[in-house]
Amino acid sequence: MCKVWSFIAWQKDWSAICDYVTRADIANRYSLDPKKKKNIERFTRYCRIVTYIYGTFTFTTAFVVIFQPGFKYLLSSKYRENVKAGREDYMQVVSSWVPFNKHEMPGYFFACVIQGLGTFVAAGWITSYDVIALSIMIFIRAELEALKIDTAAIFDASERDVIDRIRDCHKRHIELIQ
């Protein structure tokens, strides 16, 4: 919830960052410089790998959390016997309150569905927030590499172009710092 509320509270700042990332990414992606194209392709591939792996781990964890009570019931005969005999309650997905008896069927089933949906939505929020943060960090590294390529080529042009290139690099550096 803290991640969601912080995202809402600083929504204007997050929006500005995402707008900047989009603008700078498009400028690099459609550059005529083959070094910059190769750089952006390399970091795009890296970002996809990192975010897909992270998303897979997050949703695998959510899946295990959601279905753990069912797995325990199916795989543990002792637990099944204790539940049937009334010595043990059904295992909950997460601890929660519901306006019906969640310790007996069908209330237990409905509580698990509600808890499972909540877990799945929370996993989506967490993944979304973290993937945005990861992508921005990877983008900053890619933009620094692109800036390095551009600064290395500053003096490979006429005097007028050199001044324009210095201004462009300075502007990009200031935007990156912001």
From TrEMBL:
Its subcellular locations are: Membrane
InterPro entries reported in the protein's UniProt record:
7tm6_olfct_rcpt
Q: Which Pfam families does its entry note?
A: 7tm_6
The Gene Ontology CC terms held by the record are: membrane
Span-the-membrane segments of this chain are: 46-67, 107-140
Q: Which UniProt keywords apply?
A: Membrane, Olfaction, Receptor, Sensory transduction, Transducer, Transmembrane, Transmembrane helix
In terms of superkingdom, the source organism counts as Eukaryota
Question: Could you state a single Gene Ontology molecular function term?
Answer: olfactory receptor activity
Q: Which GO terms describe its biological process?
A: signal transduction
Keyword Electron transport on entry:
no
The annotated topology with respect to the bilayer is: Multi-pass membrane protein
| Keyword match Transmembrane helix | yes
Official protein name in the record:
Odorant receptor
Its source organism is Pieris brassicae
